[in-house]
Design brief:
- The chain has a domain of 248 residues: FAD/NAD(P)-binding domain (3-Layer(bba) Sandwich).
- It has 9 helices and 18 strands.
- Strands 1, 2, 3, 6, 7, 8, 9, 17 and 18 form a 9-stranded mixed sheet that branches. A 6-stranded antiparallel sheet has the order 5-11-12-13-10-16, covered by helices on one side. It has a 3-stranded mixed sheet with strand order 4-15-14.
- α2 links the parallel β2 and β3.
- The radius of gyration is 22 Å and the shape is globular.
- Bound molecules: flavin-adenine dinucleotide and iron/sulfur cluster.
- The site of iron/sulfur cluster has 14 residues, from loops.
Length: 470
């Protein structure tokens, strides 16, 4: 573990870099930094070892004030502890599709990304090594310079049939739930938010990938605002218990998630029209379907990905949809001899970020979320996929037995988007603020558009790249 220090020790010296947060964005940025820097990590929560998390069966969670006019319950999930949501994520790590980075150029929708797939590719490969990703066979869709570190998990019986019939669109999932490497092998019991055998990558069990000389850790201290003078960050104001103190630093990086990063920047007086706006995440639909073939019994909780509704000209009007095939059934089928002839699919649509969905500061200076709903674009993508479900299945779809739109994908994106133009974006393609060059805002808050793919591999690769460019 890092060298833990007190508030008094943290404020007694000037740091080369202060990083707020200790999860994916913070750790991969740290990994990328040049050696020799004196770095302080400021974490609001405490270190909770995996065994303690199992014993407690719960973790400290943020509650955000929210005004929701969408007509649907909307939730956002953020855990406050060392390693953040890495403790509870599910370890799905698809790369973004190359065309996710050029949605605006190719399909005329969404905001332009100021970098492309090829810029990130080597960093994707390094993050996959650190996370010991198990995967395989998606190279024709998502080009790679190196093989996956470990082979894919055994596919479920429905995956095997789907892949045999449609090898161009069905692939084994890429996952940080282990299938080889230093962690216990995933055993497919499907309670991955608190994995009993610690099989998925977390910052805690992967800490060796980030430890280095010259780094100290201050826990129980909340990054509150950045002191900025003459266009330069001079330090981070922290709150610990009843005390407020300032940590002096040459450079500051915020990696506290898209809601908290925006709140900190707003408190710091950063003036950018896009700051706080475009909060978003994917819109999804969970389906249980009865099919004329056996469904389950693969080697991890989610084993198959289908790209049949992902990229193509439809993206000018309807979202890309990534389909997950769950190997963790909600319920088996009741008919004698047919109890595994069911699939649980999740259709995950990219959303088009809208300026009205946003983070602002309440009267108490705490973040306040305004949520008006997902875009028509996302809804059109989900409808297109659901209407054409039979097209991606090689056996008869007999009936939909359950249909549910979750309150969240637990992905918090947007709010300090990246772009080339300071008038419409907050950070540049190195994740530095346009207007404060020694201040970084890391994480999926930088996404100008959402992708249908889960965000964490990409935000980690972006952070690693940003660190390397310091
Ligand atoms: C149940 C669940 C399942 C998920 N599954 C997947 C998945 O399969 N694949 C995927 O790609 N993504 C998944 N995600 C999303 C993923 O967890 C996030 O994308 C990822 O954790 C974001 O990383 P981050 O470093 O930006 O922020 P976080 O992980 O949110 O960490 C933020 C850190 O900052 C700290 N912090 C907060 N405020 C302050 C402050 N003011 N000062 C100092 N420190 C602060 C927090 O304690 C925490 O350590 C899942 C999320 C959940 C909740
Ligand atoms: S399927 Fe089971 S063993 Fe694998 S990561 Fe999830 S909880 Fe852990």
């Amino acid at each position: 573990m890092f060298n833990q220090i007190t508030v008094a020790e943290a404020t007694a010296e000037r740091w080369d870099m202060v990083i707020a947060g200790s999860s994916f964005a913070a750790m991969f940025f740290l990994r990328g930094l040049p050696s020799g820097l004196r770095v302080l990590i400021v974490e609001k929560g405490e270190i909770l070892p995996h065994a303690d998390q199992l014993a407690a069966f719960s973790r400290p969670r943020e509650t955000y004030a929210q005004q929701n006019t969408s007509g649907h319950f909307k939730d956002w999930v953020a855990h406050t502890m060392f390693g953040g949501n890495s403790n509870c994520w599910w370890g799905q790590v698809p790369r973004f599709h190359p065309n996710d980075f050029r949605l605006a150029q190719m399909y005329g929708v969404g905001a332009a990304w100021p970098l492309g797939y090829d810029d990130l590719e080597p960093f994707y490969a390094e993050v996959e090594q650190v996370m010991q990703v198990a995967g395989g066979d998606s190279e024709h869709i998502l080009p790679r310079s190196a093989p996956f570190p470990f082979p894919p998990h055994a596919l479920s019986r429905s995956d095997i049939a789907c892949r045999a019939a449609f090898p161009d669109i069905w692939v084994p999932v890429a996952t940080a739930r282990s299938n080889g490497g230093s962690r216990a092998t995933c055993c497919a019991n499907g309670v991955c938010d608190l994995c009993p055998v610690d099989a998925k990558f977390t910052v805690l069990n992967g800490i060796d990938g980030f430890l280095r000389d010259g780094v100290s850790l201050l826990t129980g201290a909340e990054a509150w605002r950045v002191d900025i003078a003459a266009g330069r960050a001079t330090g981070l104001v922290i709150r610990a218990g009843d005390a407020t103190a300032t940590v002096a630093a040459d450079q500051v990086a915020l990696a506290t998630n898209a809601v908290n990063n925006a709140a900190i920047l707003l408190r710091s007086g950063v003036d950018s029209p896009a700051l706080g706006a475009y909060l978003h995440e994917q819109h999804s639909l969970e389906l249980e379907i009865d099919v004329a073939a056996p469904g389950y019994f693969g080697g991890s909780s989610i084993t198959g990905h289908c790209y049949g509704f992902y990229d193509g000209p439809h993206r000018s009007g309807a979202a890309a949809v990534l389909v997950e095939n769950y190997n963790a059934p909600n319920a088996l089928r009741a008919e004698r001899g047919r109890w595994s002839e069911r699939m649980k699919l999740k259709l995950i649509a990219e959303d088009l970020p809208q300026a009205d969905n946003r983070v602002s500061l309440g009267a108490d200076d705490q973040p306040r979320l305004t949520w008006v709903g997902h875009s028509d674009y996302a809804r059109a993508g989900l409808k297109r996929a659901e209407d054409n479900l039979q097209d991606i299945l090689p056996f008869a779809l007999e009936r939909i037995v359950a249909r549910r739109s979750p309150a969240t994908e637990a992905h918090i994106q947007g709010t300090h988007r990246m772009g080339a133009d300071p008038a419409t974006s907050v950070v540049d393609n190195t994740l530095r603020l346009h207007r404060v060059a020694n201040l970084f805002a890391l994480g999926s808050g930088v996404y100008p558009t959402s992708s249908a793919a889960n965000p964490t591999l990409t935000l980690s690769a972006l952070s690693l790249r940003a660190g390397r460019l310091v």
